[in-house]
Each structure stands twice: as structure tokens, then as C-alpha cells.
Amino acid sequence: MSFGDPNNPYGQPPQQPGQPGYGYPQQPGQPGYGYPAAPPVQQPYGGGYVPTQMPGITRAAQIMLGVIALAHAVIAVMYGYALSKWDETMAEAGITGDSEAEQFADLGKGVVVFFLGLAAVFAVLGLVLLLQYAKGANGVRVCSIVYGSFAIVTGIFTLAAYGLGLIIMVVAILLIVFAAKRASAEWFKRPRY
Which CB contacts under 8 angstroms, 24+ apart, belong to 167-175? Predict the structure, then answer.
């Protein structure tokens, strides 16, 4: 039995066309022999991409947040103006003599004060979140989404205010969508050195 005999069951297998022979390195597309290959190393931040400047979609979310904060400041000013004219309006309506009517007027004044405070707090929270976009962590993104959700509710309450509520609702929905995008998540989860 010779080594080159094609009928020898113990000899070297015949080489097929296009395949490397025994001892040659494996080609990239061929399966290996022996132990299975190690799993590929996971690249952080979407394949090794670390954003160095704020993505456009995140900048748009920041602008939407600023518009909502500004709208809440305008609403607070409108409530403040209504509160400054409250006593004059009640005197013109003839509410000053009746104690029961004055109680309802005071209750209405309390509601206006509550909404004034709420709008002012929302304006300040929006401003704080707005200023944290450049250096904030993922909590800023999550808080922006929650802030947008509450802004939708305040938009419903202010629908009668010259269409301002409708603008707030549309911009709040855009804020939620833009802050929830992957590019925004990568921006807020980036490493800080």
C-alpha cells in the first residue's frame, strides 16, 4: 500500500478543487475544527461609536423642552395677570356684598394661585432640564420624557388659552419621541472623562 494510492482507505484524502490541502490555514468563511470559537467581543455604545457632540435629534429635543418651559412661563404670567385683576373683576361683577359669593370668588382665586404656582414650577423644572442636556446623564433623558408626559396634561388644561395648549401638546409629543430615540440614549449614556 502506497501513500499515493487512491484506493488506500488510510491514505491522504484526495484534494478537491478550490479547497486548500492539509496543513493550510482555514479561510475566513470555513468552519474551524476543534474547540468552538470565542464569542465576539461586545463593543460598547453601538459598535464602538461614542458621540462627541450632541446629535441633531437630541438638540431638537432640547429645543422642544425649551419651548415647553417658555410656554409654561407664559402661562404663569397669564395667571399672574388674571390674579392681579381678580379683585377689580369681582368688584365690577357685584360680588363684594354677598358672603357666599365671596367664598366662591375666593375659591376661584385659590385655584388660580394653584395653577400659577404649578405653571411656575413647570417652567423652572424645564429650565433646569434644559441646562443639563450638555453634561447630564441618562436621568436627564428619562426626566425629559416624564416632563413631556406631564406637559401633555397641562396642554389639555390650557387648550382655551389662545391655542397655547394645543402647541404645548404637539411639542410635548415631539419631545417624548426625540428623547426616546437611540441617538439621544447614546448621547446621555456616553462616557465622561
Answer: 167/67, 167/71, 168/68, 168/71, 171/64, 171/67, 171/68, 171/71, 172/64, 172/68, 172/148, 173/148, 174/60, 174/61, 174/64, 175/61, 175/64, 175/65, 175/68, 175/144, 175/145, 175/147, 175/148, 175/151
- In the chain, where does DSSP find H-type helix? 44-48, 56-84, 86-92, 99-132, 138-157, 164-179, 182-188
pLDDT of residue 157: 82
Concatenated DSSP letters for 34-87? SSPPPPPPPPHHHHH---SS--HHHHHHHHHHHHHHHHHHHHHHHHHHHHHTHH
Q: What CA–CA distances, in Å, run from 60 to 74, 138, 154, 171?
A: 21, 17, 21, 10
Q: Which whole number is the average pLDDT over 19-32?
A: 56
pLDDT band at 191 (very low <50, low <70, confident <90, very high): confident
Q: What is the pLDDT of residues 114-162, one digit of tens each?
A: 989 999 999 999 999 999 888 888 888 999 999 999 999 988 888 877 7
The dihedral built from the CA positions of residue 144, 147, 151 and 152, taken in this order, carries a sign that is: positive
Q: Are 140 and 188 in contact (CB under 8 A)?
A: yes
Which amino acid would we find at residue 151? Answer: A
Query: Residue 86: which of 119, 78, 164 has the closest Cα?
Result: 78
